[in-house]
Amino acid sequence: MLVDISNIIKTKGSKDFSFNEPLMDIEDSVKLEFREDPVVTGTVTADEHEALVKGHLSGVIKEKCSRCLDDIEYPLEVDFEGTFAEKENLEEDIYGYTSSVIIIDRMVLDAISLELPGQYLCREDCKGLCPKCGVNRNREKCNCDTLPDENNPFAKLKDLF
């Protein structure tokens, strides 16, 4: 997503932007599959030395439930903010730009990665897969033995709780 800031650098002004397109694949960044292209809106305020970008992303990503592996859709609503300058310094969260054009994809993906959950669940009480037969316990009941395995070295820990 390219934002041309050539007109506002000289006037120390601001510019609104809106995109409905896929995010670029960026190395060392979170990889997401959106149900449809996300909507990204925001404002860039620039002067001769740097540009401040504030915006919002809205979309739905496709994932797998961490417990039962069913396909799920996870809604994303992410606010983002970042500074762009001619010299990039990612340790201080300053993204680089050249030729009076900024590419906001990395900044948006960084903001998304901070908002994603540790695991995706199809529902809060997901029962997951049976560890013995692999059946989805949300849909079917299996006849596997649910007693703890006596050969399991961790079985003794159960008595501690």
Short key terms for the protein model shown above:
161 residues; mainly beta; 2 domains; five-stranded mixed beta sheet; 7 strands; 11% helix; elongated
Structure in words:
- This protein is mainly beta.
- It has 2 domains: 125 residues, no CATH class; 33 residues, no CATH class.
- Helix content is 11%, strand content 34%.
- It is built from 2 helices and 7 strands.
- The strands form 2 sheets. It has a 5-stranded mixed sheet with strand order 2-3-4-5-6. The chain has a two-stranded antiparallel sheet with strand order 1-7.
- The longest helix has 11 residues.
SSE inventory with pairings:
Elements: E1 2-4, H1 6-11, E2 14-20, E3 39-46, E4 50-64, E5 71-85, E6 94-96, E7 101-103, H2 105-115
Parallel strand pairs: 5-6
Antiparallel strand pairs: 1-7, 2-3, 3-4, 4-5
Q: Quick recap of the structure?
A:
The chain is mainly β and 161 residues long. The chain is 11% helix and 34% strand. The protein is elongated.
